[in-house]
Design goal:
alpha/beta, Rossmann fold, 2 domains, 7-stranded parallel sheet, 6-stranded parallel sheet, 15 helices, 13 strands
Length: about 375
Amino acid sequence: MPGILLNLLAATTGGQVTRAEAFLLRFRTYAPGVRLVIVKERSALPFINEIPDFRVHNVDIGTSRFKALHRAIWENLNLPKLMVGEGLDTYLTFSHFLPRLLPKNVFSIVGVSNLEPFSKMAWEVESNAARLRLMLLRHTIITSSKRADQVIALSHACKNILVKCGVSKSKIKVIPNGVEICKDHEDQNIATSLPCKPPYILTVSHFYRYKNFEKIIEALGLLSFNLKGQMQYKLIMVGKPYDKHYYNEIVDLIAKLQLQDHIIIIPGLERKSLDTLYRNAAFFVFTSLIENSPNILLEAMSHSLPIVSSDVAPMPEFGGGSVSYFNALSASDLAEKLSDVMEDTERSTKMGILAKQRAMEYSWDNFTKSVIDICSIASQ
């Protein structure tokens, strides 16, 4: 029986991991008789190795700065041979790369998850070396999408970008990410499990330049202090410092603005602890300059949080009228929008209710079923 090869070699951090886990945990519900062969990095997604009816190929790509190149070489040379050896007829990836030497009878499905190479604002904040990387990534995304039989766009903003770049509109299917809807309940021992007492402002994302964290730092410096020099809300920032230079710049900016006592940085958290932070936050701020289908924004919405987000696409596509939007390049506008939400309790409560209602429109079950529906075209 032919089957699907799912290329998860890029699923090592962040949203790629979240998407892969959600998809695989639901795969058998919507494709009970389909053979699935998975390619992943050996150290990534360890739970997959314990699923008995998935055939898993663990690959050692390495951790050097040439990791992406090593991965591309393996995908172009080894992956097509693997598909022939396994007798597979469908190639699926959520991370845009389509090998050039796939057998001619293979039906190819490419998901586009990274829109940073198409963002002028994200491009402008990066170094020359990073811009070269983005230029190469843009080329790969466009050429892979043009050659693929079907393309999965995580947002309508993504689809519009691909069409402008010459990808056929007829083969692009918009399938947004899902989100696990938070169930409201009281946490035990809140005082000991939180890094500071509520109320606090929360922002979550790993440290990359396009996340635009300096705007929330600068905005916090513009918010008013009380007579004792204290701020009503502390800011908690959760994210791993993947771009160490940028992380250090943020730490230096905090020191420069003398906000060390008002900002707490946590370098990543396990899911349960992060959910506790979400549930007890007063407000959520999302400053990113570009996303595709913003997992973190959807997570904050699912926890009924009043949210202030950057106004760049596709954030309004997902947040709709439940979110307050600020000019992504203006710290003063962010400070003003955040102050407005803080001072209007009735409005912030309504925003939280609307945010959760809107988050419920985004389901990992819908995502999984829609992707498998595309895969089924190969057998028709």
